[in-house]
Amino acid sequence: MEGMNDDGQWIILMGFLVCIGLFFLAVVVNESTIVGRTTAESVLDFSKSDIQDIRGQVFEWKNLGMTGSELANSSTDLSRLAMYRQGARINITADLNKITIHYNNGVTEYDEKIFL
Amino acid sequence: MVNEAGQLYTIEAISAGILMLVTAYLVLSTTNLYTPGDRHINDMQLKQIGNDALAMMDAPDTYGGTGNLSRYLNSIDESEVSVAPLYAELHNSLAKTPGVTPDNLKVNGTVYWRDPSDNSVMSRTLEGGDIYHRENTVTVHRWVLTNNSAFGDNPTKTVLLEVRIWRV
Amino acid sequence: MTDDNIVMHCRESRPLIFNDSGALSIDFIAGFTIFMIVFIIVITMISGLLIGLQSKTIDYDAVAYRTGVILAEDPGLTSGDPYNPTRWEYYDDEIVRFGLASSRDYPNILSKRKVDSFFNQSVPAIQQKTMMYGDYTYFFNITLEKSFGSSPMPVGDTYPMKSGFARRIIKIKEPSSMYINASDPPLAGAGGDGSFSVLVDASILYDQNARTPLVIDPYFDGVSIHIENIDGTLNLSKGPIIRLTSAEVIGYNAEDTIQNPYGSIINYPWTVQTDPGNIKKISTTFAPGYPAFSSLNLSVFPKVYIKYIFSNSTFGGTIVYDQYNVTQPLIPAVMEVRVW
Predict the structure, then answer these.
(1) Which chains touch C (3 or more CB pairs under 8 A)?
(2) pTM for the whole thing?
(3) Residue A3 counted as domain residue
(4) Are C107 and B55 in contact (CB under 8 A)?
């Protein structure tokens, strides 16, 4: 190969490197369009309305004056249905002066003590 | 007199230039700068609206009272008629223009409750909704306090109302 | 072989003269020039590709969703009152964050005064305190439309076709008001001396255990009393015309033993009679901030009696201003947020 003239190969090499750089930029710009999807996915994953719903139910039980066995029955309803339909653990216990809420759906965990 | 001496660099440069121009053309023609209407974003918006609609139907209007959702579920019996107001109000809430029933959203509701005798979960589809044929749906749910004896023997119980919403 | 021959030989096969004279061949210059021109053209084209691309402008839907959540589910924050940090509607220049909900515990139920105050704010104030948690200024348009009647209330610029969008379904809680029908009990047929009272009892209203969206706060929401049908025939006993002779506010302690008069309210703007000659309706409206309902006064005198005295009538009794006797309408509405 000693007869081959490799002068000027630098120019074509620079051209080639510029093209690789352009492809990299194209990949960056293309992936920017997926940003919207992951934001929406994370919103769907976080169970904000579940937690607000459970708190609203507990407040409704308190306002209606449910105590004792009625509260225990409704709390068992909640636990059983949540495990069956959503795969979430909901545990609501009522003491004399507070109600404790525990919620865990595998992605989000929420604990609260509501003092009466 | 004309020979190929002195053409090496020119040929290299022209070929490099053509290579860059073709690449630039390909890059510009394939990238898409605008966020496409991706299904996840629409699903998220629909889910938020569905949850809002159910939450507002469950909000009590009077002090010490219960919301509309409890009333609808309390009045369910074997006939279909008593569930229609639930669907009517749900359609109304989901409308693009308040008060105008949309024709691009369909809903279908199911109630799940616990049978206290053997702790099993029973379910019943609320008649009067649209027929579901495995479209791509968003499911929203709400816990409702009810005293309807159709949902178990306890005097007061909490049932799960699941509503499927899909676009047509 | 001489050196000249070698140099000659090299010159044929290696165009670049390998010496330090600094002269380039025309072929190299031509090629290099062509390359540089094309390179500059391509770079100029590609830099236009990236001009509009910054992370803050890609996903307007996320910004709109976040703004919708903050407005509909958060009560807002002000630094003006450390005991009531969510009452930003009464502090114009110390607002930290806008939020329209009436309480954290009840999302999507908005307070009417917050809504009215928010939609009268200027656009830059909203930009700063609602959605600009950074240095990029988004354009926005927030519209509230009630479900029945009334035109939409927008704030912000007109939105283009392509904009981030979020819609929330809400209810607006109007302040409480009490409607008393003078032809019905307990006013009618009371056999009294023509004076009856409306009792605002702090121990009932500020029951901390009642977590309900229908909370009455007389100091921050105001109190509204409307007495109607006063010229009903049931009360014409001593003469044909019933007159309102006095209306005053008196505070009592919890045992009803010590009283603290706050003065007469018979003159405008507190008590408005529709026709002083032959009254049919009386409306009394205490705006937010009435001193009788301040927490300081209520802690010592928790029972506030609003006492009306009529001549030529047999009114009597006391009506308690609590959640069972007042109306607090919840108006359904839709809020749309657009960001671009």
Answers:
(1) A, B
(2) 0.79
(3) no
(4) yes
